Amino acid sequence: MHPLTMERLGRDTGLVLEGGGMRGVFTSGVLDAFMKHNVWFPYVVAVSAGACNGMSYMSQQPRRARYSNIDALRKYGYISLKHLLIHGSIFDPNILYERLPNEIAPFDYEAYGQNPATFEMVTTNCLTGRAEYLSEKHDRRRMMAIVRASSSLPYVSKITMVDDIPMLDGGIVDSIPVEHAVATGHPLNVVVMTRNAGYRSTERDVKQPRFIYNHYPRLRVALSRRVEAYNRQLELVERMEKWGEIIVIRPQKPMEVDRICRDTDKLERLYEEGFAEGERFCERYCLLR
Predict the structure, then answer these.
(1) Three-class secondary structure of residue 47 per DSSP
(2) Could you tell me if 190 and 281 are in contact, meaning their C-beta atoms sit under 8 angstroms apart?
């Protein structure tokens, strides 16, 4: 039996949520299964889309992330080049960060704030080119700024200010923050991935020209090493999984959803797969209550 059983789901157990843009609907399915079976982790660290989905997990609102990722996309079409031209972001910021949490699918700020679990969201500091691990339970404006920064994809999103510091997507530097989870005192971790086993990025790192983020030379360096860093993290996750140090929940079917997918039928299928994998995890590791 793996050490992560019902009896070991203590304060040293962490949940790590990868990003991946719209591939994050897989994560929302996994988290909905956890909520269905009343499975709560004392520590969660999340990146980008993982941070967005993690917010609804922390506020204990089942299917809210599913609605935001699929139903709201179908209804409001918040991903388009038009938004990039008008708002400087391929995702409509008014829908995602104003209307969704406050009107369309109200976010339970009170439940989120009262949740005793630690929730960290990863951003990239544009000044240092390093990852920041930020948490906020009570200041709504700062909370939304952090989750927005964590999911602000480079090149197609605006830089977001958090504590007067320019921030972008945490996945630039730390896409799978399992090492951070261990360093914060959580040697046992469940990692929710949004890529199939064995995946490696075939993109090539390219030195960023000076006119790209010209005020942030260290960010350009981080962007120039992004693919190499991600592939190293994928290798680390697979080693840790092999050694029994972590449990990984990942898609099993061939991935048909990309980072900015707008096909809600494909998203629906990926969500359902995530929910099924979440339920399988609960059954296998005796976490059902």
Answers:
(1) strand
(2) yes
Question: What tokens appear for 187 in the block?
Answer: 């040697």
Is 58:110 a contact under the CB 8 Å cutoff? no
Alpha helices (H) in 59-208, listed in sequence order: 64-66, 72-76, 81-87, 93-94, 109-114, 140-150, 178-183
Name, in order, each residue with C-beta under 8 angstroms of 241's C-beta and a sequence gap of 6 or more. Answer: 191, 247, 248
The tokens for 98 are: 């104003």
Q: Quote the CA–CA distance of 177 and 181 in Å, as a whole number.
A: 6
In the DSSP assignment, the letter for residue 120 is E
Tell me the pLDDT band of 284, cut-offs 50, 70 and 90: confident
Rounded Cα gap, residues 256 and 263, in angstroms:
10
| 235 CB neighbour count, 10 Å cutoff | 11
**Token duo for residue 143:** 């909370």
> Which of 136, 210, 129, 212 shows the shortest CA–CA distance to 165?
129
Distance (Å, whole) CA 170 – CA 154: 10
CA–CA distance, 275 with 32 (Å, rounded to integer): 7
Q: What is the pLDDT of residues 142-165, one digit of tens each?
A: 999 999 999 999 999 999 999 999
Exposed / middle / buried, residue 8 (Cβ in 10 Å: 0-12, 13-18, 19+): middle
Tell me: the pLDDT tens digits for 29-72?
999 999 999 999 999 999 999 999 999 999 999 999 999 999 99
Residue 122 and residue 54: Cα distance in Å, rounded?
12
